[in-house]
Amino acid sequence: MTTSIPAAAPPHRPLRDMTTEEIVGTGRPHRLTYHDGTSRTVLVTDLETSFPTGELIVSQTDTDGVITMCNEAFVLMSGWSRAELLGSPHAILRHPDMPRAAFADLWATVGSGRRWSGYVKNLRRDGGFYWVYATVIPKIRAGVILGHTSVRRQPSRRRVEAAEALYATMRSEENDASRVQP
Ligand SMILES: Cc1cc2nc3c(=O)[nH]c(=O)nc-3n(C[C@H](O)[C@H](O)[C@H](O)COP(=O)(O)O)c2cc1C
Question: Secondary structure of 75-120 in the HEC alphabet?
Fold first, then answer.
């Protein structure tokens, strides 16, 4: 039996809209709405950055998913500076191609004290993206969840292609579900 420490106020640093000056190439605008009701515009390109072979991308968060630690590979792959990342919600990396259900599953799993693994397409600061195979591990002490650690490995191309197809189907179902019936 595990319990979560109640969300610590005040909330994290708000996420701001991406600007054309900071991205590489021409970005397609998407309006993302986050679980807390806040939203921002992201600009998305088709430029992929390959996962650095042999590296691990590591970060830690509090119980709300606000970043409290990250390694150098995380800084390099995300394109954000360490100062920008620390104190920001992990959703700073959310890519519009990721279905909501993937993150709902992540939070339900770690919230019940179990580790979650899955394929994640992440948005870079420059509008590009990178795929990871992530394992998110809750840090539990005396039955209390204190925070979470995520360790990402290089995903195989075959698995990434399978995830792309699955997530496209999941996204279209989510869009159908949120569409207002006439
Ligand atoms: C330890 C940890 C690592 C996470 N890593 C990522 C990540 O790399 N990319 C991502 O989009 N979301 C990641 N998330 C999920 C985000 O917190 C968030 O749920 C997701 O981006 C969707 O945003 P939303 O829940 O505000 O709608 C992570 C969560 C935790 C607890």
Answer: HHHHCCCHHHHCCCEHHHHECCCCCHHHHHHHHHHHHCCCCEEEEE
